[in-house]
Amino acid sequence: MEVKIKLINPKCMPVRMSTQAAGYDVFTSKRQYMRKGRNLVPLGFALEMPPNMWAEIRPRSSFSLHGFLSR
After folding, report:
1. In this model, does residue 23 exceed pLDDT 80?
2. What is the pTM of this model?
């Protein structure tokens, strides 16, 4: 299966930080304050995946509970 990635911002390529990692780390494309709850975050890339595949983005650690300044 092939997943295509279109970079909108060249600094925002998802990165697998180790061979043991279950997923990839993603980065915001601009500096912004994250509030508790849901946030709309520009990631700087777009994915094209086959119909039988899905992607899920999860918060890291407790960042989504306490709010934080990204980048």
Report:
1. yes
2. 0.66
